[in-house]
Structure formats: structure tokens, C-alpha cells
Write a structure and sequence with these properties.
The complex is a heterotrimer of chains A (616), B (198) and C (102).
Chain A (H helix, E strand, L loop, with lengths): L31 H5 L4 H30 L9 H35 L8 H20 L27 H29 L12 H32 L13 H35 L6 H14 L15 H29 L8 H23 L2 H7 L3 H31 L5 H27 L16 H31 L64 H17 L3 H19 L6
Helix pairs in contact in A: 2-3, 2-4, 2-14, 3-4, 3-5, 3-7, 3-12, 4-5, 4-15, 5-6, 5-15, 6-7, 6-8, 7-8, 7-9, 7-10, 7-12, 8-9, 9-10, 10-12, 10-13, 12-13, 13-14, 15-16
Chain B lengths: L2 H5 L10 H26 L10 H4 L2 H26 L3 H31 L8 H32 L8 H27 L4
Chain C lengths: L15 H23 L7 H20 L7 H24 L6
Helix pairs in contact in C: 1-2
The chains are: A mainly alpha (616), B mainly alpha (198), C mainly alpha (102).
Amino acid sequence: MTSATMSQTHDAAGAGAAHDGHDDHAYWSGGPMSWITTVDHKRIGVMYFVSAFVFFLVGGLEALLIRAQLGSPENTVLSADLYNQLFTMHGTTMVFLALMPLSAAFFNFIIPLQIGARDVAFPRLNAFSFWVFLFGGLLLNASFLFGGAPDAGWFGYANLTSTQYSTGMRVDFWVFGLQVLGVSSIAASLNFIVTIINLRAPGLKFMRLPTFTWMTLITSFLLILAFPAITVGLVMLMFDRTFGTGFFNPAMGGDVLLWQHLFWIFGHPEVYILILPAFGIISEVIPTFSRKTLFGYPFIIYSGILIAFLGFGVWAHHMFAVGLGPIANSVFSAATMLIAIPTGVKIFNWIATMWGGKLRLDSPLLFAVGFVAMFIIGGLSGVMHSSPPTDLQQTDTYFVVAHFHYVLFGGSMFALFAGIYYWFPKVTGRLMSEALAKTHFWIMFIGFNLTFFPMHWLGMHGLPRRTFTYQAGLGFEAMNLMATVGSFILGGSMLIFVWNLLRSTRKGRVAGPNPWAAPTLEWSLPSPPPHYNYRTIPTIEHRDPLWREGGEALDPEATGAPEPVMPSPSLWPIGLAAAIVIGAVGGLTQSLPVVLAGGALIFVCVFGWAFQPLER
Amino acid sequence: MSQNAAMDHHYTSTGIPHRKLLMWTFIGSECMLFGSLITGYLVYRGRSLVGPYPIDLLNIPFITVTTFVLLMSSLAMVLALSAVQRGRKGQARLWLAATAILGLIFLGGQVYEFSHFVHEGLGLTRNMFSATFFLLTGTHGAHVAIGVVWLSSLLVQSFRGKLGPEKAEIVEVAGLYWHFVDVVWIVLFTVIYLLVEA
Amino acid sequence: MSEPTAHGHGEPHVSNRTYVLIAVVLAVITAVEVMVFYIEALSPLLVPILLTLSASKFLLVVGFFMHLKYDGPMLRGLFAGPLAVAAAIILGMMALFGVFTG
């Protein structure tokens, strides 16, 4: 592989002023107020990315503290109490505040560009989703300052969360924080479903949609259908804690298992919510860097739909150890094994796309290949869990920790990094340093495997998860130390990434519209795109429009059409988000006046919003 | 499909207006919300350790009347939409007001029912029936209340002369919400009241 | 796939007469439901009868008042899909909690 960099870069003839340092007309120009009131999907995407990445670093620091504690037996870096808070917040943060919003950052920035739209269907609702996410994340983390963070696990199993076993406000922060984040996710998903169905450029039929757009659509459906289950579970838990009902209290006729069911009816589709956007990114990157159309496009799409559909019928495989009985266990086991089929189909499609292609091993492809390899390992250990007898051996051991980190870090995070390196030029107009990117990849790859591969053995040897220490002489020392060293290498690789990100934003090489010679519509626009995206909405004739004859002629700036009128900035979205969080703060402090104040503010903001015209 | 059509703000790929598509998608999500709540109600049926039990309290003739009221509010709602579409302002106001008032009567019935239950010793925390019943019907009632506020704001808009036929879409969307709330009640009426465990 | 379908939105598809007729049918079905509830002889068949009657009311409101009968496959799918998932989860959970087996 020669370092085939951007030799195929399109001549930046049509690239306007935004490319040579004059950022006056770029979508990002304007003061802080213009960001607070923005309804531009590109700015919202950038804000999602920055906030989510900060939360990702916070979650990563929590992980490093956990690993520091586990580096040696009977260690005292962390108390048991702090350890419980950290593993709870690490899981909650990574799932709800890092991976999901990082995917949302891509949805926001890329989807309207990919489908030939000027913005999402509901720009203000989009801004609202972001602010609710940010405030919800801050609310959740504020718990550290007020008596300690949630400590009942990211799954919050009853009755760990009952007032009897969790005094104080820790679990209340978790309940209200997640409830607020649910509002954000549902609002955003409704928006993206309508956007993708309704704002496709003329000729962009469903079976011509880019795979990333397809996976976003499927993910959005999963979100709107999965989140209500945990919403109901959280309301029941809130009732139990605040009013003293007995939904999860066996002494009152309740059942702790109802929580587990509701949580995993949400939680299993949630796993696919975290991985399907990654599948989408990979399905964009691999064809571009193989110079070959995606192999078996319809199979990739239908597999995604099938995975999502089956995802609602397998939740109890997280609960085999509960003892649901042989019939239930067999049904959920069989359904789980079925999911391996569409997932395997996708992996074969990616490999077949690369097969015989002219591979250019630039950083996005490097991360994509890393994803495929790591995800196969995570997928294989996952399908082992689908067999109840095997699962019983692995439940609550480090084997499970190894498995889901191979899926969520080796899978989702590798893919998200592939996406970052791939779309960074479109977002900023500049390329990231390839040398630093490759260094980042190899250090991260080594650190990741050093951290998580030994956990398979640790789990098989019986090291339980969620336990703050272990005794010496049980044979856990060496591999725990290895994992701890690996985790710090992994953490170090993030410094290289952050340095590359910050440096390239200012000093990266100017990218031009299509530095990777990619096939999808977003690359027909200047980098960065103007705030209205498309002056003239293009007509789409093919699945890979830029790889077809006439693809170059898509340049929308050349038509001389007037600059489109875009939605005006608005303060109501951030206002409504703040009002909701005020209501949540009232709920978790059990202060009726604050709840009522939040309610009144919500009322004011909804009407202020409804009567403010979109374009002024 | 010309590019000019694409420039038009009302252009959508499917021909379905954005807001209508949004409402149907939201209704899909609401199916799962009420589905989860109904699940909670049904799996805890007959698990109350102490009384009063549903059979002691549920007043079928009373709830039949409020159910009828809510069904008729759906009729008023479609008639309101039809009037707005045809530009009949007077009729539109009449039917919008009727929908909201019928919704309020239903809510009044629910308030009466709840306070009667509490008076009979069924506080929220009394048993599994009270917890699941108040959560499920309370969530439904909150939806009705939001619908009443929404319809009232449409009524105000109508009196301000801002609800002509060109605004029929927002009435249609409000109507979809209202009918869905009615549909949920059709299910709850059967599941909670008529199929009460003996 | 479902590409642009004709949606003459803003055009009332259904006459007010039909709406009133549907409402009368809904009221009658509700009356029948309550009668079935009180007839002792029907109690073994109470569940299937009531579920059928309830489902028919459900379909009437969704089909006519919510216009789904006249809308394209897109909106029908958007409603029917989630409804099916919700129904399956309710039934699955009832089975898991032994509601059917006692």
C-alpha cells in the first residue's frame, strides 16, 4: 500500500471562498449567540460531536480509574462505594452520552447532505433534541457534586434501586437524567424518520439511499420503539421511590423481574441502536476506499431491517440466569441465534466489497477493517451467549465485559473513528493528518486488544464483574495488570487523536469537495458546505451518483439559482430544553414548586415556539 | 418532478405533509408507550395483596357514559376538520369547542372516579391494582388534557381568524392525536373495565 | 418501494354522513359490549367476544376518523408495524408472567 493520499483529489475549481482561509461565509461563522439559537443541522451536528466527545473522554477517565483500581489485587485506589459509582457512570455515559450522541452527530451533519436536502424536516426540533441531550448529560453528571453519582449499574436492576437499598438522590439522578435523555432521543429520531422519508431529492428512491442513511432510518425506528419501554420502567421506578408504590417491591405484590424485562425490551434494541450506525458508516467507507460499489446493497439493507426486527424478540437472553424456564429460554435462544445470520451476511458483503477492489489503505479504511475484525470477535463471543447453558457459565463474569467491549468499542467506536476521519474534510474543509491517524489506529488497536482480550480468560476463570477488587493468589493478577496497562495505552491513543483533531481543524491540508473520490451526494458540495447546502436540489439517477457519468455536473453552485431562504434562529428550543430540565430537577429534589415552575415554563415555551414563524 | 417543485417549501418526497408524517410516527412510538403500560397492568392483574379490588370499585355504567362521551368527541373532531377544510368558520368553532368540552367532561369523570376510589381506600400505594390502574389511566388522562389544551388553542386561532382552509393540516394533525387517544381508551375500556377479574 | 403516491390532502374523502354513521355504529358496539358483560350465559366466551368488539371499534376509528383506510401503504405501515411489535410484547410478557397458564 503506497500512502495513496489525495492524488485523486478533485480539482477545487468550483470551490469557493470558504476554502482558502476566508471563513466568513462558512456555516460556522458567527458569535456564541448564533450557536445558541442555531437551527442549522451542520452546526447542531458539530455541537453534538463536541459535547459527546467530551462525555466520551469523561467516561474514558472513569474507565481508567476502574482499571487503576483493578491493576493489582486488593488495591485501594478506589473505595468500593466510589467503584460502584464509576462503573455505573462509565456504562451510562458511554451508552447514552457518548456512543448514541456521536452517532447523532453524524446523523445531523451527514443525512441532509446525503439525501440532497437543505436541512432536516424540523430544524427547531433538531436544536431542541441537542440541548435536551446536553442538559440531560450535565444533569446526570451533576450527581457527582450532590452526594455521589448513581451506583446501581447502568442497568439499574430492581431492587438495588429501591429506597431501601439506595438512599439519597443518586438513583434519582439516574432516573430523571435518563428520562430527559429519552426525550432527546425520541424527538431526534422522529425528526430523522420524517427527514429521510420526506426530504429525499427527486429520484432518490429508497433503494438508492446511501447505506448510512438507511441505517440511520432503521436506528431511528428502533429508538422510537425501544425507548418507551424504559420510559415506563423509569416512571414506575420513580413512583416507587417518590410515592412509595410497589411496582418492583415483592413485599407489596410487585416483581423485580418486571424491571429487568422492561429494561431489556429497551436494552437489547439499544445494542442495535449503537451498532447499526456503525454498520452504515462502514458500508460507506469500504466501497469508497475499495473503488468498488458496495457488494450486495439490498442484502445489507434487508439484513439491517431484519436485525432491527429480530432485536425486539430477544430481550430475555440477557436474563437466562433468572430462570425463565426451558420454553422461554429456548425461544429466546433460537431467536438470538437467528440474528447471527443477517449480521454474518453483512460481514461477508463488506469482505466481498474489498475483494478484488483497488484498496487505498487510508485511515478511514484502516479503522473500517479494524472494525470488521474486532466486530467478528465480539459477534462470535456474543453468539456463544445465545446458548443458555453456556451463558450461565459466563453471566456476570469478565467474559461478558470482554464481549460487549469488542462489540461497542471494537465495533461502534472503531467505526465512529472511521467516520470521523472520513467526513472530517466535509465538516471542516481540511484533511486530518494521515500519519497521526495511522499512529492513532495502531496504538488504539494494540491498547484495545491488550485491555479486553485477557478479559475473556479472566471471565472463564471466574472473575466476577462489578466487584471492586479481588484477592491475590487466585491467578487473576497477570491478566488484570495486562488489561490495566492496555487501558492506559488505549487512553494515550486518544491524546494523539485529540491533538490531530485540534491541529487539523486549523492547519490541515485544504480538502476540496471530494478528497476521497467518494460516490455519495454529500461529496458534490464544497467542503465545508454553504449554510443552505444545496442551491438547487439535484435530481438523482443512481445509487452512487458521483461515480456515474455526469456526476461531476451535480455542482449545485454553478446553476446561478438565488440563495435559498433558510429557517431563522430561535431561542425557544434551548428554552424548552431548559424548562424540561428544570422540571426534572424539581422531580428529583421532590420540590413541587420547582416542578410547577418547570411545567409553566414548558407551557410558555411550547406556545412561544408554536407561534414563532419558522422563517422571519 | 421538476427542480422547481423541489424548491417549494411544501415539497415532500411522499406527498405526505411533514407534520402528518411526524404525528403518525409519534403515534407508533405511543403504541409502545401504552403497550408497556398495559403490559404492567396485565402482568400484575390479580396480584394485589390487600383490597379494595377492582371488582369492588369499578363502576361499569358510569364509565360507559364517559366512554360514550369520548367516542362522540371523536365524531366532533372529524366534523371540525371537515368544517375547517370547507372554510365553514362557524361550524369549525362549534365542533372544535364541542370536542374540547367533551374531552373536559371525560376528564371530569376521571377526576370523579379517582377521588371516589381514593375515598374508598384505594390510594396510589394501596396495592398493585391501584399502582397500575392510576399509572395507566393517569397517563391516558394526561394525554386527554394535553389534547384539550391543543384544541383550545386551535379554537382561539379560529376566533382570531387564523384557521382558514389553508390551515386544515394542523387541525388534521391535532385530530390524529385526538383519535389516537380515543383509540387507546377503546382498548383500556375493554381491558380494565369489561375484562375485570372476578 | 413506496414512492410518491397520490395524496390529495385537504380534500375530504369521507362525507359527514359517513362520520355520523360510524359514530352511531361505535355507540351501538359499546352498548353491545356492556350488554355482553352483564349476560351471565356469555361469560365463557367473554374474552373473545369483547376483544373482537373492541378491535372492530379500534379499526373503525383508525380507518375512518384517522383516514388510514384512504391513506397509502406508508402511513399504514408506520402505524401497523409499531402496533404489531407492541401487541407481540404484551402477549409475550403475559406468557412470561404466566398469565395464560395461571
